[in-house]
Amino acid sequence: DTATIMAKGYILLVAATLISAVYSDCGGYGAGHDMCLPAADCGRVSGVCGPVSSAEIETILTVHNNYRNKVAMGGEGRGAPGPQQTGTNISEMKWNQELADIAQRWAEQLVNNHDCSYSLVDGSYENTCRKTEDYALVGQNMMSSGSSRPFTTTNWEYAINSWISEVSDVKGSDFSSPYGKVIGHYTQVVWAATNEIGCGRFANDELCAFKGWPSFYCITYFCNYGPPGNMMGSDPYSTTEKCSRYSSKYPALCSN
Questions:
Q1: If DSSP codes are grouped into helix, strand and coil, which group holds residue 139?
Q2: Where does it sit, as one GO cellular component term (predicted)?
Q3: What distance in Å separates the CA atoms of residue 253 and residue 198, rounded to the nearest whole number?
């Protein structure tokens, strides 16, 4: 009858409104994007929540750029075997807030894994879950750590240096891993063309079981990179190509 039809129409209207509200919270990114996932309620979380602080941003950029500058000056002696080759076209990294917002949203899911791989969309590859206005493809590094007590502070130096430590498994002459070890976190850190980064982290006061640590608390760190590193068929950096301009802060790095 008319009343039933009107009631059903009202229900459909409410459902459509709710769906619209959910996707408007995605910031226009669309279904399947990390920004469509629920944000942590930091008012109810005891731990490490909310966007990274200005002090954290400074640490993240400093650790990345200091190490990139070291490689660009031929100062990395580790490897399998080392030393690593001198990188002549490595860019200085700058902060990108959009990359950071997306990394933060994924970190708040407290998942011990990357968010998604790339996929072919309309003839082009993209990371559907973390693409931005500027980057269809976005690189990502992650690290998680456990403790017998809830985390209340961050340690970005520890997280980033854990990625850098993979250099011990990198053959200096050709950037390969002769032992088949994971080196992709390291190569992303030094990838020459990557000049923007944004990071997020999250920890709460609940016991974490995702790493098989039912008696431990966890913190997750994620950094998103643009343009992405680890592009198939390419080396992390050149040993001959020169910068057209150099950074005023990091003398061996290219200025964006």
A1: strand
A2: extracellular region
A3: 19
Residues 112, 134: Cα–Cα separation, whole Å: 27
Give 237's Cβ-side CA count (13 Å radius).
Answer: 31
Q: Is a pLDDT exceeding 50 seen at residue 7? A: no
Length of the chain: 256
> How many whole angstroms separate alpha carbon 32 and alpha carbon 84?
39
Answer whether 228's CB lies under 8 Å from 196's CB: no
What residue segments make up the domains of the chain, in order of their start? Answer: 1-31, 37-226
Q: Are 82 and 70 in contact, with CB atoms under 8 Å apart?
A: no
Express each pLDDT in 131-142 by its tens digit: 999 999 999 999
CATH number at 37-226: 3.40.33.10
Average pLDDT over residues 170-199: 97
Residue 183's closest CA among 62, 58, 84, 92?
84
Distance CA 150, CA 248 (A): 40
First to last CA, the chain: 67
